[in-house]
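Hi F.,

I've been meaning to write this up properly since the lab meeting, where we talked about keeping a consistent format for the predictions we share between groups. The idea is simple: the sequence comes first, exactly as it goes in, then the structure tokens exactly as they come out, then a line or two of notes. No screenshots and no reformatting. I'm using this chain as the first example so we have something concrete to point to.
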Amino acid sequence: MMSNILLKFNMIIISVFLFGCVEDGSINNNRDSERIVADRKKVDAFFNSSFKAFDRSMQPLRKYEGKVMIAYFWATWCASCVRETTMLKELEEQYRDKNVSFLGIAVDNTDKVRDFVKKNGITFEILIGGNDAIDLSKQMGNLRKGLPYMVVIDADNNFIAKFLGETSKEKLEEAIIKAI
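Output, unedited:
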């Protein structure tokens, strides 16, 4: 009888050690914890970065902390990117008053990007990232280093979603709503 109680007690201790508990009493497995830590590293990498504005001043991405953030890695030579900028422009106008920030990080020549932004009436901030932007996108889950690549971060700095390749307005809006 005593050995049976001791066995149950040891099983409980081992379970708590292996799986952990969360505040609401539910069991939390290590994979979830590892994912959360990995996502936090992605967000930290983002907010610790800076890229050049058109005036060549360095703009720290930390200024976007505390807002819902849609970061868009793109280039003018990328046909899918060009198509998506219209959608992003519409969504930026729609969510402007809801503490949602859109940021384009271009992997391209400054003059080409400036001309594209002017020609297409893009109103959200665009920074020039070059190869550093590709490296950051890789740190944020873009292992293929493909374009377009987009990430959604909520106001509490949680990594909400990532999209590689052209995505639909509906899918992006679903992620934005989740982040709000």
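Notes:
The radius of gyration is 21 Å.
Confidence is low (pLDDT under 50) at residues 12-34.

If this format works for you, I'll send the rest the same way.

G.
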